[in-house]
Amino acid sequence: AFDHTAYHDLQEIYNILDGVGSDFPSLISHYTAGTTYEGRDIRVTAVSSGGGGSRDAIWIDCGIHAREWVSPATCQWILDQLTSGYGSDAAITTMMDTYDFHIMTVTNPDGYAYTWNSDRLWRKNRVPYQGCHGTDDNRNFDSNFGGPGTSNNPCSDTYHGPSAFSEAETQAVRDAVLALGSRARMFITIHSYSQYWMTPYGYDYVLPANYDEQYRVAGIAVSALTAVHGTQFVYGNIADVIYLASGGSSDWAYDSAGIQYAYALELRDTGNWGFLLPPEQIVPTGEETWAGIMAAINAMQ
Ligand code: 0X9
Ligand code: ZN
After folding, report:
1. What number is the ipTM of this complex?
2. Which of its termini does the chain have fewer beta carbons within 10 Å around, N or C?
3. Quick one: which ligand is closest to 139's CA?
4. Which residues are in the Peptidase M14 domain (predicted)?
């Protein structure tokens, strides 16, 4: 089902997800976490080797920002590794017999479709507000909603939306993650670009109570990531590593969902190609990111 040599449009990605579901029916189940303004499904792929829904869970979402194409490509890479590795790769098998994975491969499908059809560098969703289009879904969570690093102008790329959780995409992430309850052990939201592995918070320079532990695990993840292809990542809290940004999903995951390991990743590169990362880099990006994520999962206490 998978093809990591090219980027795929939304319909192709959904066909790939259907394909992996029919190829691995004992591992894969799909559910719809929400429906967008333009009527598209927001899909989650649950990967489980057993346990009847009782196991701890890892949440990974990709593509909350439409133009960051290597992000959904990396969620597809992860799904491929999990399904092809179960029963053949010892590390993956052990991990999958311990954790369920819930993967939202295209969190913002309206925006993603728009980057294919109209504007390659579109970021937000496509809901119309006051003559412009789109809320930045990563400013729409209730983590200091409307605070630093957000805009109340619907024409801005960082428009926070009319109210916290006003958007179908943020409702979908919220509801799917909360449905996991205390089983959710790690939350990873995948962006590009800049090569960062970031912990809360984005809404303030204060650090989470367990910052030392999240930082320790991030360091292990980045070492494993760098070991694959030598790619350098900077790690630390969002506000210091990148900038103040309120209403983000990983701050919400830590503060409100109570997930103790909440990471926002910025994948390749550092700006040479930026959002237009060549498809030849999908595989190495997937390889190193997956190595980092596996190391992080195995380093959790
Ligand atoms: O600005 C963003 O939303 C992210 N950077 S991006 O270039 N991919 O748009 C950073 C997200 C930081 N996370 C939180 N603020 N929670
Ligand atoms: Zn982003």
Report:
1. 0.95
2. C
3. 1
4. 6-300
